[in-house]
Amino acid sequence: MIIVIKIGTNVILRDDEINEHLLNNLAETLSAYQDLHQIAIVTSGAVASGAEGFDLKNLVDNQAAAAIGQSKLMAVYGRIFGKYGLRVAQLLYTYPDLVKQRTRKVIDRLLAQGIVPIINENDPVTSDEILEMTAFGDNARLAALVARMIRADLLVLLSNVDGLYPADPRQDKQVRPIKTVRRITSRILKMASAVPSAHSKGGMRANVAAVQLAREKGIPSIIANGCRWNTLRRILEGKYPGTYFPTRRRR
Q1: pTM for this structure?
Q2: 2-245 domain in CATH 3.40.1160.10?
Q3: Strands 243-245 and 221-225
Q4: What pLDDT shows up at residue 198?
Q5: Contact between residue 4 and residue 152 where contact means Cβ atoms under 8 Å apart
Q6: For 183-213, how does the pLDDT look when each residue is reduced to its tens digit (9 = 90+)?
Q7: Which of 25, 34, 93, 158 has the highest CB neighbour count under 10 A?
Q8: Domain chopping of the chain, boundaries
């Protein structure tokens, strides 16, 4: 299977630092299943991990923080994944890149060689004039577009919550996440909170929007809690923790 995994900012960061324990668990899990699955990772966390000393209320400081954070992220990914014999490659894209055939060919080639693409938006080169045209808005959308481009079999959106809830779990402690969503209705969209968390741009609504993009191409999705140590392992074993979004349409 070809699987695209999006790691949210609130998963990859802990106390504003890169969560190396989580990445170590991720790398160990991927190494155990690398003969069964080809994995591409869309990572968040670049701006937040490089934010020290910058005012993130303006575009230039966001770009500068992203440039620093990208380097920090890739150094950690390379070091930790290397411990488990996994090679990684950094790929930075703006929106127009994803309509180019060579973009897909590069990712396909990396996957065929057993290399894990680590993908993010190319924030440092996005200018004020082209921001609206080129920005993905959230890495969940980027992950869905990558999944569509490389014809993935599954899109996994790792967040810091257990899935899509019918009510706010911060206010209702008894509420449990929905296990399966077969149709994205207006009721489902209302459940997806538009309130972003500490670092995330789009919150659950961005994840559900990404699921819709993937569904258009017959790609099922899972929204699950990436902070739990066994979430990814269960997914790679064919189980469905969190909220599963199956599709009727098949490629």
Answers
A1: 0.88
A2: yes
A3: antiparallel
A4: 46
A5: yes
A6: 888 888 777 764 445 444 557 888 998 999 9
A7: 158
A8: 2-245
